[in-house]
Give the backbone structure.
Amino acid sequence: MTSTRDKRPALVFGSRVTHGSINVKNKFRVISVGGQLIIDNLEIKSLNQHKTSLQSLEKGNECGISLERPTGKKQAELFDSISKGDHIECYEEKEAAELKFDYKAGLHKTYQ
């Protein structure tokens, strides 16, 4: 997703979904134009398209994204450094399956 930052205090980013989809339940990270991670583990405050609040949006659509402003001073400073052209990536955190190793057989088993 590419972003343009709106100057209003609500910190709304004009964006276009360029790959996959976006969902308000996902976590977000911001990557600079140069490819460096600016800030990670952000939560979405709202996702809108044409003044309509959405839960998800597919590739090729434009939207307004408002990300939750971090509370810590350092994180807030990083958040404020987001600029036009930076990329917003969304990701889903999933719990990994527990792996157990059977030493006798030399095999591992996945338990869910």
User: Anything to note?
Assistant: The chain has one domain: 2-111. The longest helix spans residues 73-80. Residues 2-111 form a domain with the Elongation Factor Tu (Ef-tu); domain 3 fold (CATH 2.40.30.10).
